[in-house]
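Sample intake sheet
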Amino acid sequence: MADRRGIAGLGGISLALAVLTPLAACSFGGDEPTGPHRVDAARLVHLSAEGKVDPTQSVTVTAVPGSRLTDVTVVGPDGRVVAGKLAEDQRSWQTTGRLKASANYTVRIAADDGKGGRGETTQSFNTIAAQRVLNAKLGPDSSGSGVYGVGQPLTVQLSEAVKDPQARQEVERALTVTSQPAVTGAWYWVDDKNLHFRPEEYWPVGTTVGLAFDGTGTRIADGLYGGDRSSLKLRIGERVESVIDAAAHELTLKRAGQVIRTIPVTTGRPGFDTRNGVKVVLGQERSVRMNGETIGIAAGTSDSYDLNVEWATRVTWSGEYVHAAPWSVGSQGIENVSHGCTGMSTENAHWFYDNTRVGDLVTVVNSRGAKMEPFGNGFGDWNLSWADWVKHSALGQPVSTTVPSSQAPATGMIRPEV
């Protein structure tokens, strides 16, 4: 019995060998398995950046004959990847994105030697320092609620004066306005350092708006390069517009085109006539001290004043407000007795204050005063015709705001959301 068990055990081994042998025979007498092996990729590629690189120029990576590039990544000091394009034959790659001046870039390259060898190498380059850097302060400041009226313009204050027409075009190209829904708008050069953007018509209610300056590394002018990226977002609230009729001595507030309240007021008396035209609410103060000396009225004269004023809604930088004027209630709705502001009862001023916001429209009609200037004393942007507005764009044409990528369809070329 023991012998039989032993024979049976050997038979089991023989069967196992019979099964295993054909597997081993598959590679018998043939070549050993081959696959990619590691090589020094540094000898397979050439980086065009030597010495200090001009950030306005493209940087190129080239493969030596017989080799090809499998991946190239350029990363800036801020961790952002610089866009680039690989040639169809994979023999070269070049940057298409912007480089910053005076910055160090890391280049990670993967290559194939065409003989089954693959490898990676890391190299770096530096860009030349800019003689001057152009940064942009964007407005409005949306650090508060971020909700503004339909008349609110976008503003840009440059850190350097830009006078040359070509340089101004570069600045406009570096500015991107996104909105949902999209609108037609244009930039207006107020002076060498300030630009405003407004739509052809008032902003649609509920519009989300983004503004970005992304001129990083862009050559604006000789020795002047675009600086750090800046951006902001805001939202447009209800359409609220007030019309002050200086001849009828009343203010009418409309919301969404519907009259909400008509208020008796007094405006500027002769010699202090309130400015005509469209103004935009600049800010609101629960209480503000008003002194006639700030507008050139000598203390102690019959026209002088020094008052603590409540519920003040500002419409010019020089000090024109819509505010409570309990001292002139007897004249409100009857005659104009103020020094240029629009006065009303304390209760009405409080209501007006609560029902308006920065960016809302306040239009004065039938006053004997001058017309509200477009710039310098607030936002008189809407007093210019659209044709005149577009003429002051460096590019000389309106633009259609793009839709933020997070709200856009999956197809189509959409600029990044700011």
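Comment: Residues 1-33, 407-418 have pLDDT under 50 and may be disordered. DSSP finds four helices and 31 strands in the chain.
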